[in-house]
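Example 9 (inverse folding). The structure is encoded as follows.
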C-alpha cells in the first residue's frame, strides 16, 4: 500500500513561506477542490472541499514562484497527520497534505 493523493484545484491562499536557519524552506497554502453532482431532484450542485497543504525544498521554491491565490494547480503528495498541544493542554490532531510534486495549470 502507498500513501499517495492527487488533487487538482485552485489555491485558496497565497503561499506562506518560512525560511529556516538551516537553509530549508517550507511553503504552506490551502487548496479548494470542487465536486459536481446531481441531486435526487435533478438539481445540479457543487461541493467545495478545502485542504491544507505544505511543501519543502525545491517543490516549495516552485510553488512560491508560480503560485498565488486562484492559481489552478495539480499536486501529488501524501496525507500526514500531525499532533499538537492546544492552549488548554489538550492533544489535538489535524491532517494535511505534504506536496511532493506540483504543476501550475
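The amino acid assigned to each position is listed next.
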Amino acid at each position: 500500500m502507498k500513501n499517495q493523493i492527487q488533487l487538482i484545484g485552485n489555491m485558496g491562499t497565497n503561499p506562506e513561506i518560512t525560511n529556516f536557519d538551516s537553509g530549508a524552506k517550507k511553503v504552506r497554502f490551502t487548496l479548494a477542490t470542487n465536486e459536481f453532482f446531481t441531486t435526487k431532484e435533478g438539481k445540479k450542485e457543487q461541493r467545495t472541499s478545502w485542504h491544507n497543504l505544505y511543501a519543502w525544498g525545491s517543490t516549495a521554491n516552485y510553488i512560491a514562484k508560480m503560485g498565488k491565490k486562484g492559481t489552478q494547480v495539480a499536486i501529488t503528495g501524501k496525507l500526514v497527520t500531525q499532533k499538537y498541544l492546544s492552549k488548554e493542554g489538550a492533544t489535538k490532531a489535524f491532517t494535511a497534505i505534504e506536496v511532493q510534486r506540483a504543476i501550475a495549470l
